[in-house]
Amino acid sequence: MEVLVFLVPLALTLGALGLMGFLWSLKNGQYDDLEGAGWRAIADDEPAVEQPVYFRQEADAGRPPR
Question: How far is Cα 23 from Cα 36, in angstroms, rounded to an integer?
Fold first, then answer.
């Protein structure tokens, strides 16, 4: 039973630290945009590779590029 004298304050301290961390993240806007980060990971932001003019003309004419 003497161990409870040590464990109860330790549990309360860890709970208070967790609550403070949650409030800090809430104040700094960590939960403002919940879906944006997921969509940015999926989105393809790399620009398309520009093909030379010769290949674009053949593709426009309906012929496969050589």
Answer: 21
The string of pLDDT tens digits covering residues 25-41 is: 999 988 888 888 888 88
Rg, C-alpha atoms of the chain:
29
**Which of left, alpha, beta for 47 (phi over 0: left; psi -120 to 50: alpha)?**
beta
Q: What is the 3-state secondary structure (H, E, C) of the chain?
A: CCHHHHHHHHHHHHHHHHHHHHHHHHHCCCCCCCCHHHHHHHCCCCCCCCCCHHHHHHHHCCCCCC
**0.90 surpassed by pTM:** no
Residue 35: CB atoms within 10 Å: 7
Single-letter amino acid, residue 32: D
Q: Which phi and psi angles does 38 have, rounded to 5°?
A: -65, -40
